[in-house]
Inverse folding.
């Protein structure tokens, strides 16, 4: 409602017999408060647009994607630099269907070299997003299957993100999708696989009321200790050593408004023992023989600091185990493997044998 309409409304109201006794200063003050509220709400609506990811994530159900284009560039000349190529994507969420002409590219480091189907980056057109009422956030990572018949590995990694979501909001959100890939030239067979979208880096920072920090430009000397401890124990639980705090490997840094030190947020869990991908191997500098062995990457003064965190994890044991047992799209064999592997962690955590 415009200020002029509000003013006309109060003039008309003030002339009625019921309101003739009202003091005009009081009426004018009410007018100012009401009109200020209208302006504030208007500004809020204009400046607070949801992202396409938030829209997709608003419902629990799995979404459907159809990616169509000249897909052969995803699989050839893997040693060359990645470039964006045109594609068409259809997105189905419940009864809603959207279609975009967009750009896609290979991404990643190891997986794009060794996988038959590499991970993908999606770039939505900002202008079209804004026309449809979304924010201009348009870059998203799509985690895909690596080899034929290995969809369970994708689902395991997706579930690991969801487990960390249960432990802290300072984590990347993910959205599961069933994806149909269509090569318009017929060079690649049409196929349907599981995959998942990862929340954008800027969205993550905005949701946490903070901003991203580039560790290469700003030397990080201290961190959010509570988050760091939780991350260390979580990485130990899933047997992931494919991360490095000082180098920022598989970690994003967010400086929130509520803290004076930055928060480390992990991602990329396909090399962990809980997924147990056939291509996953430990880093040569880490003294373990395979990724199913756990190794505590902790740089604190003493592991005694991790005792309260271990108790928090064991308190959440039932919820974490249940999330694996009741995940509908995972095979029963994979569910049993994940639960058994987590149980070995909780045995250690309850006895505090790794501290």
């Amino acid at each position: 409602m415009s200020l002029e309409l509000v003013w006309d409304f109060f003039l008309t109201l003030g002339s009625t017999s019921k309101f003739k006794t009202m003091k005009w200063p009081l009426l004018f003050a009410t007018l100012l408060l009401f009109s200020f509220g209208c302006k504030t709400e208007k500004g809020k609506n204009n400046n607070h647009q949801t992202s396409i990811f938030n829209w997709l994530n608003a419902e629990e159900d799995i979404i459907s994607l159809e990616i169509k284009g000249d897909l052969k560039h995803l699989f050839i000349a893997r040693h060359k630099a990645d470039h964006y190529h045109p594609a068409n994507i259809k997105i189905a969420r419940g009864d809603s269907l959207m279609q975009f002409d967009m750009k896609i590219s290979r991404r990643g480091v190891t997986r794009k070299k060794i996988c038959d189907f590499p991970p993908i980056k999606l770039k939505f057109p900002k202008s079209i997003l804004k026309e449809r009422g979304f924010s201009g956030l348009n870059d998203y990572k799509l985690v895909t299957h690596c080899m034929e018949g290995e969809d369970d590995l994708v689902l395991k990694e997706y579930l690991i993100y969801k487990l960390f979501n249960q432990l802290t909001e300072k984590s990347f959100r993910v959205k599961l999708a069933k994806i149909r890939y269509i090569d318009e030239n017929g060079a690649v067979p049409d196929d349907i696989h599981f995959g998942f979208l990862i929340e954008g880096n800027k969205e993550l920072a905005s949701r946490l009321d903070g901003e991203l920090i580039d560790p290469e430009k700003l030397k990080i000397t201290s961190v959010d200790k509570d988050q760091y401890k939780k991350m260390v124990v979580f990485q130990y639980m899933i047997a992931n050593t494919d991360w490095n705090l000082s180098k920022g490997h598989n970690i994003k840094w967010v400086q929130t408004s509520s803290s004076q030190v930055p928060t480390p947020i992990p991602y990329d869990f396909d090399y962990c023992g809980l997924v147990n991908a056939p291509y996953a191997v430990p880093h040569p500098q880490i003294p373990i023989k395979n990724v199913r062995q756990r190794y505590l990457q902790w740089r604190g003064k003493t592991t005694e600091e991790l005792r309260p965190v271990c108790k928090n994890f064991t308190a959440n044991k039932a919820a974490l185990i249940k999330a694996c047992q009741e995940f509908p799209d995972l095979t029963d064999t994979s569910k049993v493997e994940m639960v058994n592997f987590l149980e070995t962690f909780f045995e250690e955590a309850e006895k505090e044998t790794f501290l």
